[in-house]
Design a protein that fits this description.
The chain has 447 residues and is α/β, with parallel strands linked by helices. 39% of the residues lie in helices and 13% in strands. It has a domain of 239 residues: Aspartate Aminotransferase, domain 2, CATH 3.40.640.10. A 7-stranded mixed β-sheet has the order 4-10-9-8-7-5-6, sandwiched between helices. A 3-stranded antiparallel β-sheet has the order 11-14-13.
Length: 447
């Protein structure tokens, strides 16, 4: 309890009051307001797969739910069946050997685990290195844990890979945790093995915990298959990796995920989750294990990749006709779209919703360096995508160029702090350094 500048008693904590509204919750409110005003909204903001889980997975859930034991509290670390399935998947998919008893933890969604990780491995005042732009939960979890959040700029010119070697020595001295996310939300960027090797070596040399968010582990176009950081030699000394069934197996509402990797970090997060969670419904865990095994049917992730790629091609075609310089991603169900210069991303997204009935996420929701972009999600049914394409065609290049020039930025701002920061979308990352003068520079220039 505290008093605001007007002397009023406030029961919300100051740290929570300092947060901007959750961008995705604010987007829901904007959509609801538009629908109340009579707008038929096509929601291309939230990433919620429109395909159902496979029949085998649904049947596995129903069968398991009939067992009386399924309704009791599950083990805190997760059922042995699912932890063993995760370890088997890592062995078969990535050639990584894990002990399911000590190196795998089941979670009620990766979002909760990512949020809690700074609480488990950091102390107040420690620095957490977070890519900018990135999924907001990294910043919010680290901030609420009392750590110092240091954004690490990502630029299109670098393939959205962070220039870790440019971080100042005083920052690195206090750094405890580094988040990475490839394939990357929101840009769709991917990380080559060379960069992952550098990141693992960087974390080992600096004594950092390296957290890899592999939410889009099965997402890839034109034959691309995302690698695991845990497959890099030495990674298990410093790294953990989060996987989830939400996007790859259409289990978004089931809330099941896992973290694997370094024993000490897994144990620390398990200890925290013992206080914060009672685990995941046993029937859901059984069905998740079945999803990883993929029994006797076409892989749902492969189906989703084909569907998303078809939608991606259609969306890119219409956006390029509007003179939007979009780059084709190699993974993720997203398209990261540059907007006209001089327009705040929130204003642009709000105007697109009001004029064309299309909801997208403003880039500022993902951090200051997301300004100048919006994110389209491909998780809408084909018929709705066709409608969105038609509306964009009708809007035309001139209409696209004028979106957002009448509305001041407000509401859907950055995840931490209320001010929307506008900056050139490919501004420098903190002082130029000559190309080719450092091995690290050669790494980016060679990718």
């Amino acid at each position: 309890m505290w008093r605001d500048s007007g002397g009023m008693t406030v029961f919300t904590s100051q740290r929570l009051a300092a947060l901007a509204p959750n961008a995705f919750a604010a987007l829901e409110e904007e959509i609801a307001a538009a629908r109340a005003a009579g707008v038929e909204v096509i929601d291309m903001g939230r990433s919620d797969p429109d395909h159902p889980p496979s029949p085998a997975v649904r049947q596995a859930l129903c069968t398991a739910a009939q067992q009386p034991s399924a309704h009791r509290y599950p083990p805190y670390a997760g059922r042995a069946e699912l932890r063993e399935a995760v370890a088997a998947w890592y062995r078969q998919r990535h050639g990584v050997l894990l002990d399911p008893a000590s190196q795998v933890l089941v979670l009620p969604g990766s979002r909760q685990g990512l949020f809690h990780l700074p609480w488990a491995v950091c102390d107040r005042g420690d620095v957490v290195l977070i890519p900018d732009p990135s999924f907001p939960v990294y910043r919010v979890g680290a901030y609420l844990a009392g750590t110092e959040v240091v954004p690490v700029p990502l630029a299109a010119a670098d393939g959205y890979l962070p220039r870790l070697w440019e971080l100042p020595a005083p920052v690195l001295h206090r750094s405890r945790l580094l988040f990475l996310n490839y394939p990357h939300n929101p840009t769709g960027a991917v990380a080559p093995h060379e960069f992952l090797r550098y990141a693992v070596d960087f974390a080992r040399r600096r004594g950092l915990v390296l957290c890899s968010d592999l939410t889009y582990s099965e997402s890839g176009y034109r034959g691309y298959r995302p690698p695991s950081v845990l497959a890099i030699p030495g990674a298990l000394e410093v790294a953990v990796e989060f996987i989830t069934w939400s996007k790859n197996h259409s289990l978004a509402g089931w809330r099941v995920a896992a973290v694997a990797g370094n024993r000490e970090v897994v144990a620390a997060l398990a200890r925290l989750e013992q206080e914060a969670s009672a685990g995941v419904f046993a029937a859901v865990q059984h069905a998740a294990a079945v999803a990883l095994a993929n029994p006797g049917e076409e892989s749902l992730p492969e189906v989703l990749n084909r569907v998303y790629e078809r939608r991606l091609d259609r969306l890119i075609e219409v956006l390029r006709s509007l003179r939007a310089p979009v780059a084709r991603p190699r993974a993720t169900p997203y398209l990261w779209v540059p907007i006209p210069e001089g327009v705040a991303s929130y204003s642009f997204a709000r105007a697109l919703l009001r004029r064309a009935g299309i909801a997208v996420v403003p880039g500022s929701a993902f951090g200051a360096r997301g300004e100048g972009f919006v994110r389209f999600s491909l998780t809408v049914p084909d018929a709705r995508l066709d409608q969105a394409v038609a509306r964009l065609h009708h809007l035309g290049a001139e209409g696209w160029a004028q979106l957002g020039r009448q509305h001041p930025p407000a509401g859907l701002g950055t995840a931490v702090g209320r001010r929307v920061v506008s900056r050139p979308r490919d501004a420098g990352t903190g002082g130029p350094s000559p190309r080719g003068t450092l091995p690290e520079e050669q790494l980016l220039s060679s990718l």
